[in-house]
Amino acid sequence: MIYSSRPRPHKSRGRKNHWNNETLEANPEENVLYSSPQPGNQDADRARQKAYRLLALRPHSTGEIERKLREKGFSAAVIKEVLEKLHDLKYLDDVSFASQWARHLAVNKLWGNKKIIAQLQIKGVAANLIDDAIAEARTEMPEEEALAALIRKKTAAAKRSVQDIREKKRIFQSLLGRGFPAGLILAKLGKIPEEDLHGEDGQ
How far, in Å, CA of 41 to CA of 19, rounded? Predict the structure, then answer.
């Protein structure tokens, strides 16, 4: 009888590691054992990619990224891992985020503090960071100056005196909606000189 010297083909079978329930598989090229990818690692990779896509669109706060990943069904452990990685890479910086948003809303949008606070809370910024960000923004555009600028703009567009009760009420409600305190609005409405309302020629 003639026996072949060639080894008989056989199927590679995985070996179970009972300490951590990993499946160890044979690597045909290196003839070593390696751990197969774990579901948790795959989830973290998908969560990171989702976070990167969100950050590519615009800056986000930590709270926003956390909420959006949670809505996608990622576990708390995966979200924590991703957030730590993003902070390490400086992709998340809540201090800078709050500062930039507060300045934009205070200086460019001319919002009052109350509305700025509400907006930053929606974006998941911590209360202490909100206070610091608004204080910084108000060094450039104090709330009273923002309010006065809006009143001048609104009364000039309406071409009416704020002594008109209907116009005064309309302006009051509009400014209240922008987050300015009622007392400050009424005080400013009563302080606007006629030349600011109608221009130097009195028209």
Answer: 19
Quick one: tokens of 74? 């990622």
Query: What is the distance between the alpha carbons of residues 70 and 73, in angstroms, rounded to a whole number?
Result: 5
Contacts of residue 203, Cβ cutoff 8 Å, sequence gap at least 6: none
Q: Which of 69, 134, 124 is nearest to 103 (CA)?
A: 134
In whole angstroms, give the CA distance from residue 133 to residue 73.
Answer: 32
Segment-wise mean pLDDT, segments of 10 residues, the chain, 203 residues = 43 37 34 38 92 95 96 95 95 96 97 98 95 97 95 74 71 93 87 46 43
Say if residues 12 and 24 touch (Cβ distance below 8 Å).
no
Tell me the pTM.
Answer: 0.68
Two structure tokens written together for 190 = 């009563």
SS (H, E, C) the chain: CCCCCCCCCCCCCCEEECCCCEEEEECCCCCCEEECCCHHHHHHHHHHHHHHHHHHHCCCCHHHHHHHHHHCCCCHHHHHHHHHHHHHCCCCCHHHHHHHHHHHHHHHCCCCHHHHHHHHHHCCCCHHHHHHHHHHHHCCCCHHHHHHHHHHHHHHHHCCCCCCHHHHHHHHHHHHHCCCCHHHHHHHHCCCCHHHHHCCCCC
Round to whole Å and give the CA distance between 82 and 62: 10
Q: Provide the CA 87 distance to its chain's centre, in angstroms.
A: 14
